[in-house]
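Students often ask why we bother encoding 3D structure as a string. The short answer is that it lets us treat folding as translation between two languages. Here is a chain of 173 residues written in the first language.
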Amino acid sequence: MKWVLGEGVRLGSAGNDKRCYYGCIFATIRTMAHRVVIDTNIFVGACLGQGAAHQVVAACLRGQCQPLMGAALFAEYEDVMGRTDLFEPCRLNPAERNELLDIFLATCIWTRIYLAWRPNLPDEADNHLVELAVAGGAGFVVTRNLRDVARMELKFPELRVVSPEVFLKEMTS
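And here it is in the second language, the structure alphabet:
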């Protein structure tokens, strides 16, 4: 939760803000959006118009969840966006995909990874997702690659690896 101090003399609430007024001072308790790591396969799915993946990226753009971005994940996004064969069935042209990526990146919190946890995933190239989530305090890694990413040897009790459908349910509950 985040407290924002200001002035006021009434009671009320709006959206996810709860305002408590007393005399000339009030505090706004703003519920923080879920911090989340969005795997590249979810972004590709959103570009292709796949339902749940599209809704997760849209939720990030609306500020309903807060995506994290790190150097390794950014490099993976850049690499994936350059693979034209992935986007053959896509309705978006390359310029529109790059614009969507730019807008998505503008919503991300840049997160530095100072400690390599090495969660020992079956696919070594996916370790950076968990490391980014731990470094940024994310509660979720959203991916379609559940089989590999969820099978980490080093467990983090407050981190969940979920599909976009499960994440959307968690956001609304």
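Translate back mentally: The longest strand covers residues 17-22. Keep this in mind for the problem set.
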